Amino acid sequence: MARRREWTRESLAAGVRAGDKLALARAITLVENSDPLAYEVVADLYPETGSAYVVGITGPPGVGKSSLISALIRHLRERGTTLGIISVDPSSPFSQGALLGDRIRLSDHFLDPGVFIRSMGTRGHLGGLAESTLQAILVLDAAGKDFVFVETVGTGQSEVEVMGVADTVLLVLMPGSGDSIQALKAGIMEIPDVIAINKSDHPAAKTMLNEVRSILALDHERDWKPPILLTEAVRGDGVAELWAKVEEHHAHLDEGGQLAERRRKNVAREVFAVASARAKTHLQQAVEGDPELQRVLDEVQRRELDPLSAVREIMEKVFHLGDRNSTDSR
Ligand SMILES: Nc1nc2c(ncn2[C@@H]2O[C@H](COP(=O)(O)OP(=O)(O)O)[C@@H](O)[C@H]2O)c(=O)[nH]1
Ligand SMILES: [Mg+2]
Question: What's this model's pTM, rounded to 2 decimal places?
Answer without folding.
Answer: 0.87
